[in-house]
Amino acid sequence: MKVHGKPTRAVWLEPDACAVGIIDQTRLPHAFVTARLETLDEAAHAIRAMRVRGAPLIGATAAYGVWLALRADASDAALTRALAVLGETRPTAVNLHWALEEMRRVLTPLRPVERVEAAKRRAAELCDEDVAINRALGEHGLKLLEAAWEKKGRKGRLEVLTHCNAGWLATVDFGTALSPIYLAHDAGLPVHVWVDETRPRNQGSQLTAWELGQHGVPHTVIADNVGGHLMQHGQVDLCIVGTDRTTAQGDVANKIGTYLKALAAKDNGVPFYVALPSPTIDWRLRDGVREIPIEQRDGSELSDVTGRLASGEVATVRVTPEGSPSANYAFDVTPARLVTALITERGVCPASEAGLRSLFPERAEVRP
């Protein structure tokens, strides 16, 4: 996608081929800042501190993190350590572990002298594969938006609600939930996006709104609790969200608050779609509520907020009373029964084990 009119990915190999470039997403939307990652520890910190975030982007950055580690030491012990360090950065997104397992598979049989170049090559391939997956996912999702526009009689605006950030900032490019929206906008559909602020880190108001604005997509930021009201009054035609982990039976883990949006959508007859690249599917799990680990992050993300003052200065302030503890659950699980359909790079399917396996028959041997 574009930043200030220039095509940009969320992670890239620097021109000198000695580092990985990222957008520091903790600085958005008030400043567009890029950073170089040159070591394993820098890559791990970028993931842990959410300088990069979003399940596909975490996986891509981790793959490059393995390459950075092997540049310093390509021994078996160093490879094992790199995989362990990166694997401990974030617990919920399965793409991280999928990418690391792929790097392990490719690199373990090689001699140390062969590993550095192979790691760089495979990490770059994973990034390109992510872009292709998300583009294909967007094309399948676009058909749903076109059908919704026809159902509406091609009148007014096509109103879409999304939660958190599942755009290109959460992937290498295109995004998941926002990929169909970008393609719809580019095709001339009058799509308008309701953007939940997504407390406590405000990925909606700070990231989704920023990237939609960069691409020229009409949007409106709303408080997290407004979505149900809009649905009651017929102002949402459909919801599209992303997911950090999807079980074999179609339960989805996404940013905290997604479950409540799905409940409101169900109550009001609003289609609720989940867009996911196939590496997000954890075929080993069945019951998402019981089996998906839910990350609990530092309470300061809830008690403190960062914004721009009237002077132009960016500052962080506390909004809760001193001494009041905070519980900061980062994700929740939406059961498959509340999901209208899943949008993947291979097509759209029911949120069920049969639906997923109809699109991915080669996974038939993997049972929870």
UniProtKB/TrEMBL annotation:
Q: Name one GO molecular function term.
A: S-methyl-5-thioribose-1-phosphate isomerase activity
Q: Give the site residues for Transition state stabilizer.
A: 164
Q: Name one Pfam family in it.
A: IF-2B
Gene Ontology process terms (BP): L-methionine salvage from methylthioadenosine
User: What residues form the catalytic site here?
Assistant: 244 (proton donor)
Q: Does the keyword Nucleus apply?
A: no
- Record carries keyword Nucleus: no
Pathway involvement of the protein, from the record: Amino-acid biosynthesis; L-methionine biosynthesis via salvage pathway; L-methionine from S-methyl-5-thio-alpha-D-ribose 1-phosphate: step 1/6
Where does the chain bind substrate? 53-55, 90, 203, 254-255
Report which reactions are catalysed by this protein: 5-(methylsulfanyl)-alpha-D-ribose 1-phosphate = 5-(methylsulfanyl)-D-ribulose 1-phosphate
EC number(s) in its UniProt entry?
5.3.1.23
Keyword annotations from UniProtKB, A to Z:
Amino-acid biosynthesis, Isomerase, Methionine biosynthesis
Question: So what family is this one in?
Answer: Belongs to the EIF-2B alpha/beta/delta subunits family. MtnA subfamily.
As for what it does, the entry says:
Catalyzes the interconversion of methylthioribose-1-phosphate (MTR-1-P) into methylthioribulose-1-phosphate (MTRu-1-P).
* Protein name listed in UniProt: Methylthioribose-1-phosphate isomerase
Q: What organism is listed for this UniProt entry?
A: Myxococcus fulvus
Which gene carries the instructions for this protein? Answer: mtnA
